[in-house]
Amino acid sequence: MANTPSESAVPRTPWGLWRSPYLWLATVHLVLDTAVVVGGGLLVLAMLCVGVLGLPLAYLGLPLTVWANRGVYALGGMERSRALLTRNQVIRGLIPPQRTGSTIADARAALSDRGLWRQVLYFVLLLPLAMLGLAGVVLAWSVPPVLMALPLYFSKFAAAQAQLGPFTVDAAGEALSVAGVALVFLLLVSPLLIRGLSARDAQLARACLGRSETGELAERVDQLVTSRQKVVDSAEAERRRMERDLHDGAQQRLVSLAMTLGRAKNKAAGVDGGLQELIAEAHAEALLAIGELRDLTRGLHPPVLTDRGLDAAISAVAARAPLPVRVEVQVSPRPSLTIEAIAYFVVTEALTNVAKHAKAARAEVSIHRNDDVLRITVTDDGKGGADADLGTGLRGLADRVSGVDGKFAVVSPLGGPTILTVEVPCGPDTQPVEDR
């Protein structure tokens, strides 16, 4: 196997083929095609007939259909293994339908599976190709040796002559000429004939037993989407962990320190004024640090978002905003924690930009879920002119949204109003119960 040339490295010249094990392994493969057609093809036909004809029998026919699907995939896998052994041809296997636990759904998926019918088509088309391959093997390896020995036995025939189609060989010179042509055919044509037949066989196997290029690209895209989603979910889980650690660790210690300083300030009443001033200053700094740390943890992932969802969390953000903010949230069922966190981040960052740059008198936040799409709209009546290409804040929002295949748009003419619209796919309600 290690010395077998790969499919792309098959020699192209007769002399290269003679020195390569590919020539003999390909011959074996072509001869075995007939056995595969007779054995595997009939077995595939029998399994499909049993499965399809047994469908009306409900409890018996439905499982038979699923088993027939699996049986065809098993035979297809054996054919891919045979191609690997004899041609060193690597074919990525088709993926059978996933079991759902419902016999009816599994049977329906089995019959509508394109991979099943592609493999059935392989065994159907292999029949004429196997007959052609067998004839080619006979022509390549049996006929030339027989004709090369013609000078030794042609005189033994009746009338001391041999009939080769329209040609009659009745002299030694003619027999030697036929033997010479047969030798040239054996040395130069037979290897190329086997190579061509094997290439047609490989094309059929690749087309019917392997994944298409489009299918492989689609699978790769799915893998990348899944991988990216795992990264996003991991980052969001890490953010929640940091929020918990800060809230339960550093923030609690600062609260304890502030309480201790408060008691010290009360007990230091009446003593040196400089000492009282230092304690009061330390107490004020501790309270300020607590406030900043609370704002930091709230920005990472506020507990109210996990506990009560977007409505309560966005309402709390609006209550802290320096301008009136009207909030409308209709999200049912709740999306995943990752999508909720992105929506919260979009709204908080957008309202921060409004407060800093828009010079607006009021703002509105609207969050609605339509099927599997979460639509977020933030509107303000400020001066307008916001540009995502210029503002780092808006660019950060766009990058955050693009991480989950979301859409980001800003309409902000000079003079306002500014309308920021975000749409993110939220999928089914998959939020773990323990995280709610």
UniProtKB/TrEMBL annotation:
Its EC number is 2.7.13.3. One of its GO terms (molecular function) is kinase activity. Residues 238-305 form the Signal transduction histidine kinase subgroup 3 dimerisation and phosphoacceptor domain. SUPFAM superfamilies: ATPase domain of HSP90 chaperone/DNA topoisomerase II/histidine kinase. The chain crosses the membrane at residues 22-55, 120-143, 175-194. Keywords: ATP-binding, Kinase, Membrane, Nucleotide-binding, Phosphoprotein, Transferase, Transmembrane, Transmembrane helix, Two-component regulatory system. Residues 344-391 form the Histidine kinase/HSP90-like ATPase domain. Residues 38-208 form the Putative sensor domain. It is an enzyme of class 2 (transferase). It catalyses: ATP + protein L-histidine = ADP + protein N-phospho-L-histidine. This is histidine kinase.
